[in-house]
Amino acid sequence: METACPQAASIGNTMDLATALGHALWMAFAMLWEILWPLILGFGLSAVVQAVVSKSEMTKLLPDDSAKSLAIACGLGAASSSCSYAAVALARSIFRKGANFTAAMAFQLASTNLVAELTIIIIVLMGWQFAAAEFLGGPLMVMLMAILFRKLVSPKLVAQARAQAERGLKGKMEGHAEMDMSVTEGSLWQRITSKDGFTATSHYFVMDWAAVWKDIAIGLLIAGALAAWVPPDFWQKFFLVSHPVAAKIWGPIVGPIVAILSFVCSVGNVPLAAVLWNGGISFGGVIAFIYADLLVLPIIDIYRKYYGWRVAGLIVAVFYVAMFVAALLVEFVFDAFGLIPSHRSAQVVEMSISFNYTTVLNMIFLAIAALLVLRFFKTGGPKMMAHMG
């Protein structure tokens, strides 16, 4: 009996662990099922836009940090891939070709915060208020960044950053950032519906998925684990739920820090943002967390390679301050107009997979994705994939 008890306890602990892991994996899968069709739709729309917008023109359109150039940078960023690594690589590429440094950074911010797929997933998981806040705060964050860079970045520092950038040190997704298959002849509709347009759309669609699938998977696994294992009391204490005024300030401060430590970027951070919102983080804290995908540790290391330690540190500091202030201002504005959701009920998971509108939409968009993947393979896509980096 004495030997049986420890063995029974060991078996019980193993079963408890297996149950806990199974619960976390189910939560992750259920989140994926919930956001699958929005992901395919968003990446599809992004691919169509990239197929008709040429990257070669970007440098000419971003000569300075004027309001016009920054607005164009935001528009070009919104029309590009949502992959954080590709956005950072492309920002350096256009900077090396002569684009203004601040405008290149504005493009980078817009590329990860104003894209279609991010907006659609936020609406599905969290509600239109969060998507509206993201879009209102994005340009505000760019404006704050531009003001800070004008004050802190001297021509000498820009020259040092350009010299470092010219060294061409490799980061991640270099080939993906440089790829330009855009169709420029004919009307917009003719470009989209042409064979070349279809091919370009399929290539951008698959390349974008290849660029961000790891971030999406990691984000879902972390979000699933947190939703399954972390008790609500922990989040409520951590986010100062019992101190509403302090929580409004604390949320935008700690949101980017959680993002930095989570290593999750691109659209992969939205499921985790939903978990944090349900846990008690402030409205502005959610927005700051989503903004901060360009501050995860691997990307900070890429900034160091691209621009040197001094400029990398300045980028991180300026981005953090701009994200904090923009998120806090958005919270105040939405609170004043009564637009902050009163219930913390972000659609993280369904209890079971059933035949409902989500299943129908997933089936439809999976068929569309299969068509694009088939076109990708039939038109030499795998060879191009080898150059993504």
Provide a brief overview of the structure.
The protein is an all-alpha fold and 389 residues long.
Structure commentary:
With 389 residues, the chain is mostly helical. It has one domain (28-385). It contains 19 helices and no strands. The protein has helices at 4-52, 58-61, 67-78, 84-96, 101-113, 116-125, 128-152, 155-166, 174-178, 188-193, 195-229, 232-238, 244-262, 269-279, 283-291, 297-307, 309-336, 357-378, 381-385. The longest helix is centred in the first third of the chain and has 49 residues, at 4-52. The radius of gyration is 22 Å and the shape is globular. The termini are far apart. The model has no long low-confidence stretch (mean pLDDT 84).
Distance between the termini: 59 Å
Low-confidence stretches: none
**Total individual domains:** 1
Our Rg estimate from Cα atoms comes to 22 Å
Number of helices: 19
Q: Can you write the helix and strand succession as a string?
A: HHHHHHHHHHHHHHHHHHH
Major beta sheet summary = none
Q: What is the SS-derived class?
A: mainly alpha
